[in-house]
């Protein structure tokens, strides 16, 4: 879809299109209110500005719209509307060794238990081993630090998905 086509969408369709990029209701609402948007640079800048202005509850809401890294069943069931994008973003997990997959599952559980939300990482271009290393490196973080790291990862994911939306 082109930016012109996105600009021309009726509000409900625009809302749904943007929700595929980020699941935070406040982000989607504020983004929809900006349309029409002049160009891709403005779209991406405004998306980041709005994201960074949200609070922790909004960030956590967005995190709930992601499957756990490597959770294929979750990709298929809970996230049907974004499953193709998420599967592509996590494509390297399909090539992972059994040992790495088990370590990711254990790490995901430890992370979620400690922080109260799933491990969020911009997985595009990363191998399963790289994602595991990032997960293990972030586990010792303090909650106040980690929520900011996770939010920045979500911002990157949203930017990638906005770009995909414009090329879909």
Describe the structure.
- The chain is mainly α and 168 residues long.
- The chain has helices at 3-8, 11-19, 25-32, 40-53, 56-63, 72-77, 83-89, 98-115, 128-138, 143-167.
- It contains ten helices and no strands.
Brief description of this entry?
The protein has 168 residues and is mainly α. The chain has helices spanning 3-8, 11-19, 25-32, 40-53, 56-63, 72-77, 83-89, 98-115, 128-138, 143-167.
Radius of gyration: 16 Å
Largest sheet composition = none
**End-to-end CA span:** 5 Å
Number of helices: 10
Summarize the topology.
Elements: H1 3-8, H2 11-19, H3 25-32, H4 40-53, H5 56-63, H6 72-77, H7 83-89, H8 98-115, H9 128-138, H10 143-167
Helix pairs in contact: 2-3, 4-10, 5-10, 8-9
Descriptive keywords:
single chain, 168 residues, mainly alpha, 67% helix, elongated
